[in-house]
Automatic annotation (TrEMBL):
Key words, A-Z: Transferase
Keyword Transferase belongs to the record: yes
InterPro entries: 4-PPantetheinyl_Trfase_dom, 4-PPantetheinyl_Trfase_dom_sf
Source species of the chain: Rurimicrobium arvi
Name of the protein: 4'-phosphopantetheinyl transferase superfamily protein
GO molecular function: transferase activity
Sequence ranges assigned to domain 4'-phosphopantetheinyl transferase in this UniProt record: 103-163
Amino acid sequence: MPLFREWAPDEHSLAAVWHITEEEHFFADQVPVRADTIRHGKRRIEFLAGRFLLQYLKNDFPLHAIAKNPNDKPVLPEGPYHFSISHSYPYVACIIDELGDTGIDIECERASILSVKHKFLTPEESELFPDTLPDILLAWTAKEAAYKYQGLRGVDFRQHLRIVGWKNITEAEKIISIKLPLIDDSAKKTFKSLIDKDFCLSYAIRYKHYKI
């Protein structure tokens, strides 16, 4: 069972990363959802693996109740959980929060992101990060996690998801603070990021002592 990592960001949330090595039927046989309308095989496996991982973390997770809100954000309209899923084959990640909105993003290393960093980082933000693939990918995943946490349309990653600071916890773990002016001019959210040898991962946290 290739569970890459499982952890509790705090007492109200759970998260996990799964390394997909199984065939599609492994996930399809264990989740009560259909993926017939997804034609691309890899996308179908990612979809099923994400649902499988939600159910792995919370065996009472009502997969059948997942719907999209008016902003196309996957939600449980009647609760009891808030959640976020991300996949970058062959990895899938998810987070479940009992108290409020959350967001997670995982991205495998891809050098092409260096050529488009100007599309999601302002010059001021670029000065905050070393111009290396892991660090730029880290900034991207933090903004993607913030986008999912916010759950709104019409988002400009440079204007509406502004990185205002970050700090190291360890060499591989960072804390990033992002302003969310579409919610409120003073709104900020903290994200924890992990740099692995194969991917970068960021997710929403609420720890007060991580504030920047």
